[in-house]
Amino acid sequence: MNVAIVGAQWGDEGKGKVVDLYGAKADLIVRYQGGNNAGHTLVVNGKKTVLHLIPSGILHPGKLCLIGNGVVFDPKVFFEEVDELQEAGVFEKDAYLRVQVSARAHVILPYHRELDRLREEQASPGGKIGTTVRGIGPCYEDKIARRGIQVCDLLQPEALRKKLSRAIEEKNTLFQYHFKAPVIELEPLLAEFLKIGERLKPFIHDTRMIITSALQANRPILFEGAQGTLLDIDHGTYPYVTSSNTVSGGAMAGAGVGPQAVSQVIGITKAYTTRVGTGPFPTEIEVTEPEIAQRIRKVGAEFGATTGRPRRVGWLDLVALKYAVELNGLTGIAFMKSDVLQDLECIRVCTSYQLDGNLSPHFPSSLEDLERAKPHYEVLPGWGSFNTQGVKVLSDLPKELCDYMRFVEDYLRIPIVLMSIGPGREETLVLSDPFSLDS
Ligand code: GDP
User: Fold this and answer.
1) Is 17 in the pocket of ligand 1 (CB under 6 A)?
2) Where does CATH 3.90.170.10 sit in the chain?
3) What pTM did the predictor assign?
4) Catalytic residue among 20, 40, 74, 153
């Protein structure tokens, strides 16, 4: 039984915690898209670990974590995380026995980061995407333009020289004439990345083959998505999106498996909504209910794990969530951070959008329509000062919170399989186990 987990909103839903929990059930944990623009925060035994690239399942002894071909791979960040985990005593033996990278993954080079930074810095006021300036977008651009550098190239000095010189030719014109920035020198870059290749060698594998063998042996696999559905390059709020397919379909191409490899798809959502960076956000309450927004941000620690940026806050948007159910083929929901809504008098839930005088339950394709869409809310009672900390069974939760859960399930027509009521591993009510469910 294999499970994919995806962010069902704009990212930061708490995927790290769920991957960590489900990682205990899987033999293999596979990241299939994105890069180190993800930031997963894990709290285990009171100790906080933030991972950007290595799958969050790494904290479970003995589990093999794979970075699939669909990921864009920054080797420097990778080794920083390996060293940090090594220091924390996470690896029983050599790190390369626990974490491996696809030979086909594309490498983030310093010029990708530089290009990302210059574009965001020099963009006109309305033109910024709000990227994390980690070079993710420019690396995916080179992949699609067929001038990317793959992990396997770092082991081939002659091929790497040829590919790098071709790759930087056009970049240097951009740096020199468009951005008025220093150009890239081939030789030091080549030497640096050949050296990185030497250290990386034992970590490089045909990860697709490892996954296929695990599938054939019926060993449980967890496919770990990054970012969120509404940031998907095809289906998100384009152009305010990330550069990869964050939806569950991305797991197929980004890990090298067929659709039958994934039997359950769990969408992670918060009990409210947040968004980082620019772009439309119909249920945002920063202007309409600023005190509640600030409260949720403070209690929910809604600041980016990668950038420290404050996240924009709003009510739960069921129109967007239903869209995520359909796009990903979600079979269950992990409902996170409801504890953050404690002490609110009432909870609003958006059930349709008002657009040009009509109510619509559909998420519009056009950004302009989404910008004009006004949320139509149902108002549910809050659960006052009831503190859910320490609750172990659903029946001990306040009735109002259970009613809120049921409302969400009824609207989405899929079950909540996990209820998270705090950042710690133990602050979780597991309602059903996707690894033991039939597809
Ligand atoms: P991810 O990128 O989807 O993994 O999300 P982040 O890790 O950036 O954000 C989730 C944050 O919420 C982390 O700081 C978690 O420790 C925390 N968190 C996860 N689940 C809960 C929860 O149920 N309640 C509270 N209060 N915090 C949670």
Assistant:
1) yes
2) 270-430
3) 0.94
4) 40
41, 231, 420, best to mutate for ligand 1 pocket (most atoms within 8 Å of CB): 41
Q: Which tens digit of pLDDT belongs to each residue from 363-410? A: 999 999 999 999 999 999 999 999 998 899 999 999 999 999 999 999
- For domain 106-200, give the CATH superfamily: Adenylosuccinate Synthetase, subunit A, domain 2 (1.10.300.10)
Place of tokens 């992949």: 143
Contact 6, 434 (CB under 8 A): no
Q: Give yes or no: 235 in active site.
A: no
Element (H, E) at 238: none
- Determine if ligand 1 sits within 6 Å of the CB of residue 12: yes
Q: Strand 221-224's sheet: what is its strand order?
A: 204-205, 99-102, 64-67, 28-31, 221-224, 3-7, 264-270, 332-336, 416-420, 428-430
Each residue's pLDDT tens digit, 277-302: 889 999 999 999 999 999 999 999 99
397 vs 23, 308, 338, 346, 401, CA distance in Å?
26, 32, 11, 17, 7
Is CATH 3.30.70.2860 what the domain over 3-104+204-264 is classified as, yes or no? no
116 lines ligand 1 (CB under 6 A): no
40 is catalytic: yes
Cα–Cα distance between 99 and 73 in angstroms, integer? 13
| Topology (CATH) of 270-430 | Adenylosuccinate Synthetase; Chain A, domain 3 (3.90.170)
Any idea which residue has 């987990």 for tokens?
Answer: 5
For 376, the enclosing helix (H) or strand (E) is strand 374-381
Q: How remote is the CA of residue 298 from the centroid of ligand 1, in Å?
A: 13
* Ligand 1 contact via 423 beta carbon (within 6 Å): yes
Q: 305 in ligand 1 pocket by Cβ < 6 Å?
A: yes
